[in-house]
Write a structure and sequence with these properties.
Layout: E1 5-8, E2 35-36, E3 42-46, H1 52-62, H2 70-79, E4 84-89, E5 118-127, E6 137-141, E7 146-148, E8 154-156, E9 160-168, H3 177-192, E10 196-201, H4 206-210, E11 215-216, H5 224-231, E12 238-243
């Protein structure tokens, strides 16, 4: 039985807290890179709540045809912070002043803080096997690797590890940011005990992900519900997986 639940933003609008909270403590000391690229100028680091404005801003630039509410990004960071990372350009000086960009919410009075040293991000988390959340959806819970059965004993539930989003600025795509992101997430997922890594490719990007070890899952092997979910990502969406 599924241990997850979700709410589509078409029918539910959560209250969004202004992103003015102090930085949260990430894995490690928050300053050291978690993973370096071939080019040492760019490093992946744990994402924090103060990065969310920039993450959302990048998402509107990099894939405007697949919009998600900022509440989705807040939700993923709250539910599974250890699966959220940002790509840092170490040659770009961090600044703390506000850079205002146009937001769809005209009632918002909080100016977003955009950090130009953040040039990419990825969001990932556990999810049910052979499934993916619909696009632009708030999740209430995430599946666990083990849960208590009717005899009050721990049993494995075998959820998959799901890459919700990986986006890198067009200005730095000549780096190996995408490849190093996958290697970072694979290592973390395997260490936690996940056996399968999955994602939903969009915008005709299946070949890109195949080159990084993912294999397409035939629509005939998906449940009717999963095939319906894929429609929320567009006609060219492909569900893909990789054994860890």
């Amino acid at each position: 039985m599924s241990t997850t639940s979700s709410t589509n933003l078409n029918t539910h609008t959560p209250s969004i807290k202004p992103l003015t909270a102090p930085p949260e403590t990430p894995i490690g000391d928050g300053n050291s890179p978690i993973n370096s690229l071939t080019n040492p100028r760019f490093v992946w680091k744990q994402a924090m709540v103060t990065d969310l404005d920039t993450i959302y801003h990048l998402s509107t630039i990099i894939h405007p045809d697949y919009p998600e509410d900022i509440a989705v990004y807040i939700n993923r960071l709250e539910l599974y912070p250890e699966g959220c990372f940002i790509l840092i350009d170490t040659h770009c000086v961090e600044r703390t002043d506000s850079v205002i960009f146009e937001k769809s919410d005209e009632k918002s009075t909080t100016s977003p803080i955009i950090h130009p040293h953040i040039v990419g991000y990825c969001l990932s988390h556990p999810w049910d096997a052979e499934s993916a959340p619909p696009l632009d959806t708030i999740l209430d819970t995430l599946p666990k690797l083990e849960q208590l059965d009717s005899n009050n004993e721990l049993t494995k539930t075998n959820p998959w590890y799901y890459l919700h989003d990986c986006a890198i600025s067009p200005l730095v795509r000549n780096t190996d940011g995408g490849k190093s992101c996958i290697e970072l997430l694979k290592k973390n997922a395997k260490c936690k005990g996940f056996e399968v890594f999955s994602l939903t490719s969009v915008n005709n990007s299946a070949k890109y992900w195949e080159n990084r070890g993912f294999c397409p899952v035939s629509p005939q092997n998906l449940s009717p519900l999963m095939r319906e979910k894929l429609l929320s990502y567009g006609e060219d969406a492909v569900f893909m997986k990789m054994d860890l």
